[in-house]
Amino acid sequence: MSRIIAGAAGGNPLKSVPGDATRPTTDRVKEALFSRLESWEILQGARVLDLFAGSGALGLEAASRGARQVTLVEKAPKAVSVCQQNATLVNKALKSETASVQRGSVDSVLDGYFDEPTRTPRKTFDVVFLDPPYPLTEAELETTLYKVSRVLADDATVIVERSSRSPEPVWPEMVQLFADKKYGETHLWFAEPVQPE
Length: 197
Known about the structure:
Largest sheet: 7 strands, mixed
Strand order of the largest sheet: 3-2-1-6-7-9-8
CATH topology: Rossmann fold
Number of helices: 5
């Protein structure tokens, strides 16, 4: 069973999505990931987007550790229900409505955050988690990352979690890789917006 590791909601168990359609992040990887993010001091007060959220474990861990606003994006009905239950649990522990769930495909939700006619984001995020399902192709991930790049705050961090057998994601020109780390079967990539010279 997954749980919130640390922070204001630390120790709370999280419901898991039934079946094998989702791939939960192990506690070991989650612990390593969040200790790294905390050492960079980017979680406190952050606006977080958790794409392909599954049970919502990554976004809700960020909420427990001081994120200001967390949006869990999921389209599978079972996963949406689990996300909602877990968000309710964490919000109760935090005594605030920090976490919310947005149902829909990742690409359509990202399109909704961007105003095409004015070419400006309606919403921006400081931290974005992407833990896409295995069937997602490299080309589909590239499209999603391009859409993510349009809604990033200036000093945002994007974290992509994939199988250690997957190739490095193709980054849009506005985003650059700055770190990566393998943990057994899991590979994490960390990227940030390219700053204008």
